[in-house]
Amino acid sequence: MSLKITVIGTGYLGATHAAAMAELGFEVLGLDVVPEKIAMLERGETPMYEPGLEELLRRHVAGLEGSTGRLRFTTDWAEIGAFGDVHFVCVNTPQKHGEYACDMSYVDSAIASLAPHLRGPALVVGKSTVPVGSAERLAAYLAEHSPAGGDAELAWNPEFLREGFAVEDTLHPDRIVVGVRGERAEKLLREVYATPVGEGTPFVVTDFPTAELVKTAANSFLATKISFINAMAEVCEAGGGDVAKLAEAIGHDDRIGSKFLRAGIGFGGGCLPKDIRAFMARAGELGADQALTFLREIDSINMRRRGQMVEMAREALGGGSFLGKRVAVLGATFKPDSDDVRDSPALNVAGQIHLQGGQVTVYDPKGMDNARRVFPTLGYAETALDAVRGADVVLHLTEWREFRELDPAELGAAAAARVLLDGRNTLDPELWRRAGWRYRAMGRPTA
Ligand code: UDX
């Protein structure tokens, strides 16, 4: 008999994981405490923009025409407890307000709600990003508070999906990491992931703390790569070098690799910034803060980029005040193929210029609604061309494909001045220069 799976929390991670589990052939029951989210998912809709996810939901959500019916949703914990052999916990762990540490309250409350309903053997699998030591604590809680006692086991299985590629990353992960205490948990997880493992995905079995640390270590490494290249961009700016060429050249070294070496206004989103901060906070609690002091520097290089972009814009406008200047901002989300504006460098730069008196008009292909909610006082335009109309300077701040396909001549005719600042280093300088634009990118020579 095939395993029955529940997924607790239906945000980015949970909604994608639930749909992917159904795609792998399992019967899946998803839970969220927000009934409106459940209602949307039951219609095959997602609360966020994620390529391919709605298609996957429509293929499996019960009650939708032509679906396999393998995926259902509920808000009822008792139903979850009775249904599942394996329960995935996919709730978020945001940064605590005003602190570096991560807020474990959603994970803790999910486990507390689930425990009384685990009446027989069950495996609870944490996927959320948590401070090292959490799994040990939660395993003890489950054993003590579940009617199943020691038969309610815990495992930790970090998730590495990227927004914009969530479906692809979940169905075809680079690796699967499981932190387990016993053979039963490993056996069940091998069954869950039999398809990707059969297709060659490495399956790494380890203990709780290592599994928890793999996730924070991976995100810290990625953040370090980005801040490293941004630090090189600063040096290039001072010494006249070209950071894009530098990245290309060092990237040819297999040991370094070419990915995540794109200089620009830095990283944002709901993961990298809060994960490195939570990691530092946890290391501090463990008395290992010295080991991670470099992450403070990674964070500050990253945050500095935003201010540097603002200064580049000021300089391009002749220095002095932004008052009365029209600034077009292309991009509001923290990355392309997402509508997520959490800790978005683009929106931060737009906001800083606006607060300094600039007349900012933002356009983003998918992030407009979220941006308007977060920053209602900025100007918004319905197209890139409309945003650029009458602008004294254009800032390219999120690397959407749509922006690479813009016609520089058409935009040039609409702008008040042909000055383009590329905060993501993804536009083609020659293309824009040929159309009469003064093109400036971070860490690259001016002409
Ligand atoms: C990240 C991790 O990649 C993923 O494995 C983890 O599960 C969650 O956190 P995500 O937040 O979706 O995923 O974004 P990612 O693709 O990592 O990009 C993060 C930020 O870095 C974006 O703002 C992006 O624009 C920026 N970035 C990325 C750069 O500035 N330069 C680069 O070279 C790459």
From TrEMBL:
Q: In which pathway does it act?
A: Nucleotide-sugar biosynthesis; UDP-alpha-D-glucuronate biosynthesis; UDP-alpha-D-glucuronate from UDP-alpha-D-glucose: step 1/1
Per the UniProt entry, what are the Gene Ontology biological process annotations, in alphabetical order?
Answer: polysaccharide biosynthetic process; UDP-glucuronate biosynthetic process
The UniProt similarity line reads:
Belongs to the UDP-glucose/GDP-mannose dehydrogenase family.
UniProt source species: Streptomyces griseofuscus
Q: Which reaction does it catalyse?
A: UDP-alpha-D-glucose + 2 NAD(+) + H2O = UDP-alpha-D-glucuronate + 2 NADH + 3 H(+)
The domain of life for this entry's organism is Bacteria
Record protein name field? UDP-glucose 6-dehydrogenase
- Active-site residues per Swiss-Prot or TrEMBL entry: C271
Tell me which NCBIfam families the record gives.
NDP-sugDHase (TIGR03026)
